[in-house]
């Protein structure tokens, strides 16, 4: 049963990721990205990496996709015009995807499925409280400067998007 659920979420994630690439509408592509991130979180849950699944949902599926949707709606992005070069790019992308699929299948057929890992490696994770406590301690002591710089860069990016999204009149030069 676990194998079926894994393959189901893996197929859903890959299908949603392909929807991000193929979709001409920016909002639909962002929603496919959200579905892809949720599928990845489900795969993390199946791997019993609950903290990573929580971070995947909160940071990527929550904050990043909302930021993408905010920027898309702020800039009023419309779908592009269908043109012939798009068909050429789609055909070339399909050939590359097919070549990668064939290489993967041939590699699996030649080498066989991966061997089972040593059971000693799967003894179990560290207690959740101790690892999260040490993670938080490192984040706010050793890595405090990178955290502050990242926050400042996100603030500058948000202000930049706000300035760029203002509409200017041709005659005045001011918003």
Q: What spatial form do the alpha-carbon principal axes imply? A: extended
Report the span from N to C terminus.
59 Å
The CATH superfamily of the largest domain turns out to be NADH-ubiquinone/plastoquinone oxidoreductase chain 6, subunit NuoJ
Number-wise, the strands total 0
What is the annotated CATH architecture of the largest domain? Up-down Bundle
Biggest sheet layout = none
CA radius of gyration is: 22 Å
- CATH topology name of the largest domain, in short, is Four Helix Bundle (Hemerythrin (Met), subunit A)
Structural class: mainly alpha
CATH class of the largest domain: Mainly Alpha
The number of domains: 2
Poorly predicted runs of 5 or more residues = none
Strand content: under 5%
Q: Classify the helix fraction into a percent range.
A: over 70%
Can you walk me through this structure?
The chain is an all-alpha fold. The protein folds into 2 domains: 1-80, Four Helix Bundle (Hemerythrin (Met), subunit A) (Up-down Bundle); 127-175. Helices cover 75% and strands 0% of the residues. It contains 6 helices and no strands. It has helices spanning 2-22, 26-46, 50-75, 84-111, 128-140, 144-165. Helix 1 (2-22) runs antiparallel to helix 2 (26-46) and helix 2 packs antiparallel against helix 3. The radius of gyration is 22 Å and the shape is extended. The model has no long low-confidence stretch (mean pLDDT 75).
């Amino acid at each position: 049963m676990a194998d079926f659920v894994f393959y189901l979420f893996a197929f859903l994630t890959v299908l949603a990721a392909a929807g991000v690439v193929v979709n001409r509408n920016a909002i639909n592509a962002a929603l496919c990205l959200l579905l892809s991130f949720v599928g990845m979180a489900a795969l993390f849950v199946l791997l019993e990496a609950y903290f990573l699944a929580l971070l995947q949902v909160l940071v990527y599926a929550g904050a990043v996709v909302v930021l993408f949707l905010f920027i898309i709606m702020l800039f009023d992005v419309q779908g592009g015009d269908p043109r012939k070069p798009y068909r050429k790019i789609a055909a070339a992308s399909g050939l590359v995807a097919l070549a990668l699929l064939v290489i993967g299948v041939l590699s699996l057929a030649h080498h066989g499925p991966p061997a089972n890992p040593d059971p000693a490696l799967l003894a179990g994770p560290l207690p959740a409280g101790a690892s999260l406590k040490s993670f938080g301690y490192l984040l706010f002591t050793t890595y405090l400067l990178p955290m502050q710089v990242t926050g400042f860069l996100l603030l500058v990016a948000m202000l930049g998007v706000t300035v760029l999204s203002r509409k200017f009149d041709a005659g005045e030069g001011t918003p």
